[in-house]
């Protein structure tokens, strides 16, 4: 009997040793980064968390501790859009503590500089490369199934539990999920998944407190159809063309009945008018990203930086795990199986989770008119009606608050992501996450 017990215990120990030796979850502290002068003035950790039955999918993340009080400050998960855009977009352009210096590429490594309006001043942030194939995330085996919206929700949920298991000091911190653009389809479903998991399956519970979304894709047809009234309001198309489109297309400009030749002709006229508009920020010129005069030239520089062998070594990227790093891998194999995130917003509000939905008002990719339309469809009563929100004596945008704890905010002069108006975006986030009115 004792003999059998001995071997049973020995077998269990061997299993545990095997598990921990094969677990590919890894984390490393980054003190210096090529291109940044001196030691990093914030705490950066990078690593992989394996998800899936055999941890075949290795999700890469950047984690930056709050610069204020990491023991108590909120913990924010930040996703970039795409699908297929690296979370380095959030870290280097939108709300991270450093950015790429806008200077003409001369063959040397692009420079990084500190950013003034980092959200890490008041919260810790996990920037996650997802789905697999995005940024530095990779798979150890050939995947049978393509990534999908609903599949990503489950993978990110698993990632969070494993990450918190390795960072238990953050279990009690208020947790928020956030992102922009395409993550507007993922984050609301993830919030619902976390909320259900806290009650049904997954211990310890994630201390979920709410979510924040910028110019979120929510329901493709709503956003696409609202580009036309947006274009009219911004004087990109004439009154006559707009009135004709309304009358003949009847508000349906995307899936036009092929028999409606008159509508198709009007849509063609519309496309001629907006064909040279830079949709993410309509007040900037449309130009090649390799032009130093272009706002998005930093994206071009980032590709040189992230593909540098010294940079990848400093970030502890597994050598040979990916080919060329690209900021947005838009041809990523992916199934878009969440057609609308409106039902998830509804369920989350019923469960009492506050949300901040903000829109740069000069974005035509996901125009604020479309965002307002799906929020109206929720039929929630108003707590605080439309009013300007201020920074000092200047209007930074407009806001209204709903009975379901949803706050809508516009950012005046803002574009598709927070990067275009960093000060306004930071102050808006700081007020909301602190429970203050905008």
From TrEMBL:
Pfam families: Peptidase_S10. Residues 1-26 form the signal peptide. Keywords: Disulfide bond, Glycoprotein, Signal. GO terms for molecular function: serine-type carboxypeptidase activity; sinapoyltransferase activity. GO terms for biological process: proteolysis; secondary metabolic process. InterPro entries: AB_hydrolase_fold (IPR029058), Peptidase_S10 (IPR001563). It comes from the Eukaryota. Belongs to the peptidase S10 family. This is Serine carboxypeptidase-like 7. The lineage of its organism: Eukaryota, Viridiplantae, Streptophyta, Embryophyta, Tracheophyta.
């Amino acid at each position: 009997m004792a003999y059998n017990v001995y071997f049973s215990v020995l077998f269990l120990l061997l299993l545990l040793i095997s598990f921990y030796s094969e677990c590919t979850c890894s984390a490393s502290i980054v003190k210096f980064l090529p291109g940044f002068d001196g030691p990093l003035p914030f705490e950066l950790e990078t690593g992989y968390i394996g998800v899936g039955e055999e941890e075949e999918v290795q999700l890469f993340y950047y984690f930056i501790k709050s610069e204020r009080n990491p023991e108590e400050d909120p913990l924010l998960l930040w996703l970039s859009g795409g699908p297929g855009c690296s979370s380095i977009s959030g870290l280097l352009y939108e709300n991270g503590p450093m950015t790429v210096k806008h200077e003409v590429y001369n063959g040397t490594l692009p420079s990084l500089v500190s950013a003034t309006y980092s959200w890490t001043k008041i919260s810790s942030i996990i920037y996650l490369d997802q789905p697999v194939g995005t940024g530095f995330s990779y798979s150890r085996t050939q995947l049978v199934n393509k990534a999908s919206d609903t599949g990503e929700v489950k993978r990110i949920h698993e990632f969070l539990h494993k990450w918190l298991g390795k960072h238990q000091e953050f279990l009690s911190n208020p947790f928020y999920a956030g992102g922009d653009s395409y993550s507007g389809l993922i984050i609301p479903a993830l919030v619902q998944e976390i909320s259900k998991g806290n009650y049904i399956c997954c211990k310890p519970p994630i201390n979920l407190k709410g979510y924040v979304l910028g110019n979120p894709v929510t329901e493709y047809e709503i956003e696409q159809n609202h580009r036309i009234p947006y274009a009219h309001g911004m004087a990109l198309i004439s009154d006559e063309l707009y009135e004709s489109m309304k009358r003949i297309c009847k508000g349906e400009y995307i899936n036009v009945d092929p028999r409606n030749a008159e509508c198709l002709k009007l849509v063609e006229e519309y496309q001629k008018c907006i064909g040279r508009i830079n949709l993410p920020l309509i007040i900037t010129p449309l130009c090649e990203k390799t032009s130093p005069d272009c706002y998005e030239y930093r994206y071009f520089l980032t590709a040189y930086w992230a593909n540098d062998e010294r940079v990848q070594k400093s970030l502890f990227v597994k050598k040979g795990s990916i080919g060329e790093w690209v900021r947005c891998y838009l041809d990523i194999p992916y199934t878009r199986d969440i057609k609308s995130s409106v039902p998830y917003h509804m369920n989350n509000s019923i469960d009492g989770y506050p949300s901040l939905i903000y829109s740069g008002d000069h974005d035509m990719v996901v125009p604020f008119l479309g965002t307002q339309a799906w929020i109206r469809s929720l039929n929630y009563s108003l707590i605080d009606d439309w009013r300007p929100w201020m920074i000092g004596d200047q209007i930074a945008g407009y806001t209204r608050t709903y009975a379901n704890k949803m706050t809508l905010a516009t950012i005046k002069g803002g574009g598709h992501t927070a990067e275009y108006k960093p000060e306004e975006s930071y102050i808006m986030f700081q007020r909301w996450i602190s429970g203050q009115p905008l």
